[in-house]
Amino acid sequence: MLWDLFSTFFKIGLFTFGGGYAMIAQCREVIVESKKWLTEDDFFQIITIAESTPGPVAINTATYVGYKKNGVIGSVCATLGTVLPSMMIIFIISLFLEEFMKNQYVAYAFVGIKCAVAFLIMRAGMGMLTKMEKKPLPVITFTVVLAAMIIFEIFAVSFSSIFFILTGGFIGIFVYSILDAKKEGNTK
To answer: What is the pTM of this model?
Structure first.
């Protein structure tokens, strides 16, 4: 099991460019569909938690899945599997980065990689959107955040995505606290 955790996340880390967000679609495909280590709902929940805790989302996800499958040692194996490929590649590139970036074909490759990464991030987002509960609060929150992001992008307003995450969390706490209070009031 430990080797399976390590090798699975090593492959994800090795063959996914663009950071944690680009890895979400690949993680979901492997963790939920192929390996069936998590349900769709569990995966959605861990992505939500991984995004709102410090650190890269892919590493947080790997750590959680590893812990769920094999405790602390599982989380270490999954995390190392995710991190090692990037560390090795960055180390090798850093040895000759300046010359590497002067190569015209490398520059062309990075343009193509950026496009692929944008697609992977969009795919992950669309996958999560289709699985999202279609209750009023999630739909309204999604719509407001999407509109705000588009408006901020159009008007070149620099805004931290952390604000959106925290605002969504506070809105969820506020609304569901009111709903829970109403339920308790109705049952008395």
So the answer is: 0.59
Tokens 């699985």 sit at which residue?
A: 131
Distance, CA of 47 to CA of 54 (rounded, Å):
12
Helix (H) or strand (E) holding 187: helix 161-187
Report yes or no: 32 and 38 within 8 Å, Cβ to Cβ.
Answer: yes
AA letter at 118: A
Q: What is the pLDDT of residues 147-173, one digit of tens each?
A: 888 898 899 888 787 887 888 888 888
User: Which pairs from 172-177 meet CB under 8 Å and 24+ separation?
Assistant: 172/137, 172/141, 175/137, 176/137
Six-digit token string for 116? 């692929």
Q: Are 29 and 48 a contacting pair, CB within 8 Å?
A: no
Cα-based distances in Å from 144 to 8, 49, 178: 36, 20, 20
Tokens of 111: 């343009």
Q: Decide: 113 and 18 in contact? Cβ < 8 Å.
A: yes
